[in-house]
Design a protein that fits this description.
Elements lengths: L11 H17 L4 E5 L6 H10 L8 H4 L7 H4 L5 E8 L7 H5 L4 E4 L8 H19 L5 E4 L7 H7 L4 E2 L5 E2 L7 E8 L19 H5 L5 E3 L2 E2 L5 H7 L6 H7 L2 E3 L3 H4 L24 E2 H5 L3 H8 L8 H14 L5 H9 L6 H14 L2
Parallel strand pairs: 3-10
Antiparallel strand pairs: 1-2, 2-7, 3-11, 4-7, 5-6, 8-9
Helix pairs in contact: 1-6, 14-16
Length: 360
Amino acid sequence: MPEHDTPHHDSPAALAALAGAIRDWARELGFQALGICATTLAPHDRRLQEWVDAGLHGDMDYMERHGEKRWRPEALVPGTLRLISVRMDYRHDGAEPLAVLQDPERAYVSRYALGRDYHKLMRARLARLAERIAERRPGSALRAFVDSAPVLERGVAQKAGLGWIGKNTLLIHPRAGSWFFLGEIYTDIPLPVDAEFGGVHCGSCTACLDVCPTRAFVAPFVLDARRCISYLTIELHGAIPVELRAPIGNRVFGCDDCQLVCPWNKFAQHSGESDFRPRHGLDDAALVALFSWSAEEFGERLAGTPLYRLGHERWLRNLAVALGNGPPSDAARAALAARAGHPSELVREHVAWAIARLAR
């Protein structure tokens, strides 16, 4: 955030008008909602610290590296007075998720990852929003984030009025469900703040807790990342714990189960963003076909998508587990046998596990 010497003498009316204009610009740029909050993020700061102290973040060391910068925005970006939170829906038409999950020969990819990498799209849109704000108020300090810094995203969004944090630890809005991305702009403009979203509207429902294949929720609102399929298939770099492989089923990148059963998602809006449409048939692809991709094919087909961050080695690791959880077909056995001598020890170990599973 650059330093500036431009004086601003903003009246409450002028700041309110600017906030209204920012909302209009956000809608024009494809964001479905925008909220503004101050920099105090309690009690989300305490809850995050308790979660990290309990070791529930697993190998995600970055969750503890930045200390108070995650919950003290002014420590991350000096001079910050307000946080702008935006929502962008990503749910798109495609193969029915439950139908894919129920077919053990198909690969389930988390719905957020089927299209273009949202980081790039949202970062570009937020940059344009920041430019519009700077044009209206020259010299203002503005810095945009999309998973690119230690930002307490869901806490910021709740404080900005965009929803509540549900028992599945996701942000939920009563008219939009939870199928959306979040992004932020930190600024020194003293904009009027929105009312934070009050209450938790999950009631007595425990559908998300009950459906989790690996029982990753140790309590309502508390996720043990070390058991979460999204962590195991995306964040974890080493071997997937043997006891958690069978529950993963055919989920090869992420997991949506706790969203698929959430009653509030009947109100989720479908995205109008063409970039979020499924690519390469990944919404309903055969495991054997994906497992046959070479490293070059993996790079060519998945470049620009969230799946690219896995790398070919972990891609094969995840697919081997899914094949081992599927039916013992000749095609599955042959595909696994072809990778049994793979140069990667990580791949070989998971392939051997899968072959032994199908031999039972």
